[in-house]
Amino acid sequence: MRFKFIATACMLFAICLLPTLLWAQPGGGGPDPDPSVPIDGGLSLLVAAGIGYAAKKRHDKKKAAKLEEEKEIV
């Protein structure tokens, strides 16, 4: 039991310590990223897809209700 605790503590310590020791190559030159890149492009597509999905679900629900109503009449 004690060995398992010590082994777990050592593994946790190693996992927490190793990322601070493993530095990549220092950042070099290169162009600065363009700050005017729009973030909205993907978000507006996601909103449009959500609206389309909601409209389809609403249409399907109305269609199912209409079929149920027709079955009750007949």
What key phrases describe this protein's structure?
74 residues, mainly alpha, flat
Proportion in β-strands: under 5%
Structural class: mainly alpha
Number of helices: 2
Average pLDDT across residues?
A: 81
- Low-confidence stretches are none
Main β-sheet description:
none
N- to C-terminal distance: 73 Å
Radius of gyration: 29 Å
The overall strand count is 0
Name the overall outline.
flat
* Order of helical and strand elements: HH
Q: Helix content range of the residues, please?
A: over 70%
Structural features, described:
With 74 residues, the protein is mainly α. The chain contains two helices and no strands. It has helices at residues 2-21, 40-73.
What is the compact description of this entry?
This protein is an all-alpha fold and 74 residues long. The protein contains two helices and no strands.
Give the helices and strands, then pairings:
Layout: H1 2-21, H2 40-73
